[in-house]
Structure formats: C-alpha cells, structure tokens
C-alpha cells in the first residue's frame, strides 16, 4: 500500500536506467504451515531491494470440516502478526491481530468494486448450510500488500549491503479464523503448502 497520494504514485514509481531481477526466497523453517504456525524469511543481504515488491505465495486449503468450512474473505486474515528485524534489531513489532487490522484498512480505503475483485481472485468461498462439500480445496494465493515497514517504508528501495540480515517472521492465526456453516465442527483447520517469497533486486546503471 503506497504512502503517496494516487495522483503522485505513477510519477514516484518511475525510475530510469535500472533493471530488476525477481528472486525466489524459501522460508528458513519450512515450506508448509498450518494454524498457529509461523514462517521465517531472510531477505538477500546484497543489492538494492524493492520492499514494495515483497510477496509470499502459497497453496491454501481447509480440512476436516463436517459442515462447510472455508477460508476468510481476505487471505491476509490468516496472519496473526508480522515482525521485521534488521541486523537483530526489531523495526516492526509483532502486534497481534494483524489480519483484522488489514481488513479494517481495506474496508475503509478500498472501493467496493476492488473488494469484490479481491474476493473473486482469492477464491471467495460462500458458506451455506448444505454440507455437500465440507472443505475448501487447495488453491493458489499470494500476500502482496503489507501494513507497517514492508508496505509503507519510504523510500521503498533499501541497500541491503549496508543493513545486515533482514528477517521477516509471519505468525498464523488459529483455526477459529475460518468461515463455517452452523453445523461445522470445531476440528476444522487450514494448511498452507508450497510456500515461498519473492522480492525484486534492482541494479542501477552508471
């Protein structure tokens, strides 16, 4: 989410005589996670990083529901907290209920048409009393918008060589975040698989 007004965003984003390479980053702990789990990423420690390009990709599914059980409206709702450290120093505290705060900001700043587009692209799941399908099958998702340091740091480009290790820790919410029909059981949970991050490393031509 850009900190600049919309009418300035295009001009601010323009740069000349530079190139970017997208780098795939695997979690340090595991490429799978479930409710109450955590993911730890370490960004490249050389080059110019474009923080605005930081994304996390994964497959998500719900399991073990007796009634219908689905993922929440915004996939960011799965995030309990995000912590960022640079060279061992915390630059973003892991405040709880990150997902709810993200939803509140989306509801206040994103128009209805875009909210509907997000729901469609994220496989919005309609919960009904019909238990014909108990779980939401695996689908591909992406966290591409961020609150705090990752999404609002200006300038968005940082020189990693000067900062040391940059680590991002994402903690996931418990299974109660899921949407469910009235007859769904309390053992339903969700799983994330094939998890990886990506970020652009930029080179400026002399």
Model description:
The protein is an alpha+beta fold. It has helices spanning 6-13, 98-109, 112-121, 149-152; strands spanning 18-25, 33-34, 38-42, 48-63, 69-70, 79-86, 89-92, 139-143, 157-159, 166-172, 179-180, 189-204. Strands 1, 2, 4, 8, 9 and 12 form a six-stranded antiparallel beta sheet that branches. Strands 3-10-6-7 form a four-stranded antiparallel beta sheet, with no helix packed on it. The protein has a two-stranded antiparallel sheet with strand order 5-11. Residues 124-130 have low confidence and may be disordered.
Attribute tags:
single chain, 206 residues, alpha+beta, 6-stranded antiparallel sheet, 4-stranded antiparallel sheet, 4 helices, 17% helix
Care to give the gist of this entry?
17% of the residues lie in helices and 38% in strands. The longest helix has 12 residues, at 98-109.
Helix content: 10-25%
Task: Report the portion of residues in β strands.
Answer: 35-45%
Unreliable residue runs: 124-130
Class based on secondary structure composition and strand pairing: alpha+beta
Report the biggest beta sheet as strand number plus sense, adding barrel if it closes: 6 strands, antiparallel
Number of strands: 12
Distance between the termini: 30 Å
Mean of all residue-level pLDDT scores: 81
Tell me the number of helical segments per DSSP (H or I, 4 or more residues long).
Answer: 4
Helices and strands, in order, run as HEEEEEEEHHEHEEEE
Shape: globular
Radius of gyration: 18 Å
